[in-house]
Amino acid sequence: MDGFLLSRADRTLRTAGARSRYDSASAAITALADGDTELVVGALPFDPARRAALTAPDSWEFTSGPWQPGQVAELPPVRVARQVPEPAEHVARVGALVDRLRSGALGKVVAARSVVLASETPVDPETLAARLIQSNPRANGFAVDLTSAGDGFRGHSLVGASPEVLISRRGRAITCRPLAGTAPRRTDPAADEREGLGLLDSTKNLAEHAFVTAWIEEVLAPLCTELSVPDAPVLTSTHEVWHLATPIRGLLRDPATDALSLATLLHPTPAVCGTPSDLALAAIRETEEERRFYGGAVGWCDAQGDGDWVVAIRCAEITADGLEVLATAGGGIVADSDPQSELDETTAKLRTLLGALGAVVAE
Ligand SMILES: C=C(O[C@H]1C=CC=C(C(=O)O)[C@@H]1O)C(=O)O
Questions:
Q1: Could you tell me the pTM of the whole model?
Q2: Which residue intervals define the domain Chorismate-utilising enzyme C-terminal in the entry (predicted)?
Q3: How much is the ipTM here?
């Protein structure tokens, strides 16, 4: 695919072509400020030291409501080719992180793992995005061409359905909806409700969540004349999991502060990285395979500075030939995390992508 799609509950942006490409947010911000383009779309990588995949599109269209893809084609069958790392190794890594969290300066770190899916015929990114959006039109569904990030990403795409908004800006008004803290959904309605209510009451999950809201408040407070961060999170859900969410609103001090700059200041939040940020990022670089664009941000920014950026979770990278799909999910680890439950949490989160592709990983 050569374009960009972001489908949100209130509106959808679809673009085509790439008039210019930028591998850093600063280059894209300069292009917007210089009047070289009216719109920038794309993805920021998880690791801020890596190259971004941003473009100035040839054409674009905003429509109201979620994307209506019409008749959606079938996706080809896929099989689980390998897991990276193997589940037992993920459990061991989380165990080692828990030891570090109990003894050191680290307060929280997010641990992620991937499943590599293989297909005999190409998986089309837009078809996968359409399936995800049909299954949950409230999610922030996306499909992004990663070519602008250069070697290793040409022709690759990132496709997902994120429940988490990093930052949205309309004029001076900004909103964020950070998520952290997870419980599984149950098929029995009473058991399902108990899981949700239990999450709202879970000291461990509330602590995991508080690291994220504290970070966002720290970053945004100096930039805002008004900032409302509720004291306690609310419950939200996808088909697969319950989450704790905090709806945050603010008014920017300087109307020139644009959405893409705000995204780069906030990213990576402790919802995908940890606290303190620098130590958590170092621990992730030491422990994990390169995250690429999983855990990054996907969105758009226009010449007025407005834009939407969602956290790149519940997503997968598709290779240029469409024959390999790398789905990744992570979870926040704190001192009292249980490694086996953390593995189960990533399995539940991976189901968003794997379910759309008709694949399963063993419990
Ligand atoms: C990092 C992910 O989820 C984040 C968002 C919601 C809940 C999370 C958690 O409970 O750990 C994570 O912070 C992911 O889905 O890969």
A1: 0.98
A2: 88-349
A3: 0.99
